[in-house]
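Q: You know discrete backbone vocabularies at least as well as I do. I have my own habits and do not want them to colour yours. No explanation is needed for now; the record alone will do.
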Amino acid sequence: MKAILIPVKEFREAKKRLAPHFHPDDRAALADAMCEDFFSVVAATRCADRVFVISKEPGALSRARVLGWETIVESSQTSESDSVDAGSRYCAEHGVHALLRLPIDLPLVEPSDIEAVFGELQVAPSVVLVPSSDGTGTNALLRSPAVLFPSRFGTNSFPRHLAEAEACGARVRVLRNPRLELDIDELDDLRRLANRLRPESATARWLVERDLSAQAQAPGALGRSASPSSHR
């Protein structure tokens, strides 16, 4: 059984690197908008048997239930790794063998991008990783079995996840995907992405309401086409 696990931080606790630029209410609204957009994309995929959302954020949990997804309610949130590992254990106990962790702050992602990650999955034990654009973070992590190794999200998570995968003898695929690689952490990220967003998206509306779309750079090219590479 294949599944997607989406950890969602409380909206008011999200995107703290943007705190010098935006009021907490604005940052919470941005997190809510990204959640709305990302859930819509995941709902349009046809690659997973089940979708799980782990969070203590009422807005995310209620939106997941409306979509018919399964929710894992947290009483507290200490770190993304702890949340993902708790969710992974829950999923494994409920029959999930291959589990893809995805964050909500991937504003350019399309259903085909998520399906492409599952398309790279090999016979267990196996891992598919999508790094962040700078090569240090992990924007997508697909593990089979779901609890193959502990999560290492945070600084330099990509090389740490790669080392964990290789240490346990897993078959590893690294997928470079320009839409999955782009996330939102800094003000420049918002400006850079503004003209690439679907105009009807909640995130695009958030940017327009704060006049950031007018400051955006020209859209340009997204970068390289998605292409996998192998590691053992």
About this structure: The helical segments are 24-43, 58-66, 80-93, 111-119, 157-167, 187-193, 202-209. DSSP finds seven helices and eight strands in the chain. Strands lie at 2-8, 50-55, 70-73, 98-101, 126-131, 138-144, 171-176, 227-231.
